[in-house]
Design goal:
399 residues, alpha+beta, 4-stranded antiparallel beta sheet, 21 strands, 23% strand
Length: 399
């Protein structure tokens, strides 16, 4: 039965129990010790061989790999072993581009672009990637200037990182229209003008780079003689590593704009523009009016329902949570009666439940389960009975 049977023999590689390699982070070398390893070869061309069993981890600002891969075994039969990089540094990356790799350096990060950065630490413990702000409570409330769009220069510091809302890159001796930006970055800074009127759409501006002044020139003529309007940097198509403070007319009347009775459509449009261009909501003064009315959040509920009836994709719900985070409140924390009074239609209630469930701060299973229990009875809760102290007093007197 087994007359013609021929066994198949395959080689099996295993790692010896004794130490076979050492990461020497100070000299940036990876050394192999085991004599049992007959062949080892680093995968890739970014590493410099130093001897029979030693490799130098070549410094490269373009290298984002966390490991060096080695072929161990024989030329035709081998295994691939991944070894953490041999270095001692802290690198700050913006969209996979290294901006700094010195532990003592200071990097400025705009809060609106924080999610585009990451920190890579390489040391004796291996390689670790962290998001900026992981060690501090950092949100828009960390900047006291968020409620005053005329003063926006406050920064918040964390180990080697300085966070800010806006950067002032204007060349003082020329004017606020001239930005100190390198010629390599001239195409990634894009600006739009919006008049603030419901019938107007944001208009993309044509900027020019003055090589003699080494500045990017932003045309501000559309703001001349105006009492409202804004020129803002857009992040819709490009993401430069800085965010420039917006431009307003020189003769702008802040109190007038804060108190002006904008209609709901204008406010919804300002929210849509901020969400579409991925920029701060707070730089649009139309939205500040929502927080000048002491109505316990009634107008906020009205506005968000009107917004979500038209814009209700996943990114739209996330934009509304960014809006809430920026102005320091939570949608689900607004009074229950405001939601029930506005949301009579079933479709509106579905939108509200999606809004509550899409909160990026609700991540743990316990939190999600608790939210499910709340929403099961959210629309059928009995109307709260407010105690009438004056009526109680009259009844007591009659007795």
């Amino acid at each position: 039965m087994y007359k013609d049977y021929k066994p198949i023999i395959k080689k099996c590689f295993f790692i010896p129990q004794s130490e076979i390699l050492k990461r020497r982070i100070e000299s940036r070398k990876i050394q192999f010790f085991s004599a049992a390893i007959k062949m080892w070869k680093p995968v890739g061309d970014d590493y410099v061989l130093m001897g029979d069993k030693e490799v130098f981890d070549n410094e490269s600002f373009n290298s984002v790999e966390d490991v060096v891969s080695f072929r161990i075994g024989e030329e035709t039969d081998y295994i691939v072993l991944d070894v953490y990089r041999a270095d001692n540094c802290r690198e700050i990356y913006f969209e996979n581009r290294c901006l700094s790799r010195k532990k003592e350096s200071i990097i400025d990060i705009p809060l609106i672009l924080k999610h585009k950065f990451y920190i890579r630490t390489i040391d004796d413990n291996g390689v670790k990637r962290t998001e900026p702000g992981a060690n501090v409570m950092l949100d828009y409330t960390s900047f006291s200037s968020i409620w005053n769009i005329a003063r926006l220069s406050k920064t918040v510091k964390e180990d080697g990182i300085r966070y800010y809302l806006y950067t002032f890159k204007h060349k003082q001796d020329i004017g606020r229209h001239a930005l100190q930006i390198s010629i390599k970055q001239k195409d990634i800074y894009q600006f739009y003008y919006w008049s603030g009127d419901i019938d107007d759409e944001p208009v993309k501006l044509t900027t020019t780079f003055d090589e003699n002044l080494n500045c990017l020139i932003v045309p501000l003529d559309k703001l001349e003689g105006k009492s409202q309007g804004i020129i803002f940097q857009s992040l819709k198509e490009t993401t430069p590593p800085n965010y420039v403070v917006p431009y307003y007319p020189n003769n702008i009347n802040w109190q007038y704009l804060a108190d002006r009775m904008y209609n709901d459509d204008t406010i919804v449009k300002a929210m849509r523009i901020a969400a579409e261009h991925h920029v701060y909501f707070s730089q649009f003064y139309q939205l500040h009016r929502l927080f000048h009315a002491y109505d316990n959040g009634k107008e906020l509920v009205n506005i968000v329902i009107k917004y979500l009836r038209t814009f209700n994709k996943k990114e739209d719900f996330l934009s509304m949570h960014r809006f809430a985070n920026e102005f320091s409140f939570e949608w689900i924390a607004l009074p229950w009666m405001n939601w029930t009074k506005v949301c009579k239609a079933e479709q509106d209630r579905i939108l509200v439940e999606k809004l509550f469930r899409s909160n990026p701060r609700i991540v743990s299973p316990i939190e999600k389960t608790s939210l499910d229990l709340i929403l099961e009875r959210y629309w059928s809760l009995p109307k709260p009975q407010f105690w009438n102290f004056q009526r109680k007093k009259i009844l007591k007197q009659k007795q």
